[in-house]
Amino acid sequence: MTDTTQRNRPESSDRESSPLVKRGGGAPATRGRTTIADGVVEKIAGMATRDVVGVHAMGSGLSRTFGAVRDRVPGGGGGKSVTRGVKAEVGESQTALDLEIVVDYGVSIADVARDVRENVVAAVERMTGLEVVEVNIAVSDVKLPDEVDDEQPEPRLQ
């Protein structure tokens, strides 16, 4: 976790009520430990971000270009990378996320950012039990109606 994340909210000291520690009855602390990888949180956040109306794509133009090329190569990854444009830092009971998005022209960026935050926080907290302490969003581009979509594969036959 970064220093800024730790300053924003301290780690929860109420370990008895944590959904990652206590499941059902019995002695919760003696039944084992659950760890969640950064990549798991990144996938959840990526899917939740893409579900928001007004989000056209994720990642910078360069990462989207490389991803589109990689996706066209046989065995190169099979489809869009759900974690493109997502970075997560996961601690024992908290997580912080950085997202890079491209929005559709004409939408309110403030509204899209708010909706993305709400959707990501709800999905990550529901699925992992981790407290989301921050979701930083960088809008790297706006997709204009007449622009060619980098993520659309070219037709194989002409």
Short account of what is shown:
This protein has 158 residues and is an alpha+beta fold. It has helices spanning 3-8, 38-50, 61-72, 109-128, and strands spanning 55-58, 86-90, 94-104, 131-143.
General description of the model:
The protein has 158 residues and is of the alpha+beta class. The protein has four helices and four strands, in the order ααβαββαβ. It has helices spanning 3-8, 38-50, 61-72, 109-128; strands at residues 55-58, 86-90, 94-104, 131-143. Strands 1, 2, 3 and 4 form a four-stranded mixed beta sheet that branches. Strand 2 and strand 3 (94-104) form a beta hairpin. Helix 2 (38-50) packs across helix 4 (109-128). It is elongated and about 60 Å long. It starts with a helix and ends in a 15-residue tail after the last strand. Mean pLDDT is 78; it is low at 1-24.
Topology overview:
Blueprint: H1 3-8, H2 38-50, E1 55-58, H3 61-72, E2 86-90, E3 94-104, H4 109-128, E4 131-143
Parallel strand pairs: 3-4
Antiparallel strand pairs: 1-3, 2-3
Helix pairs in contact: 2-4
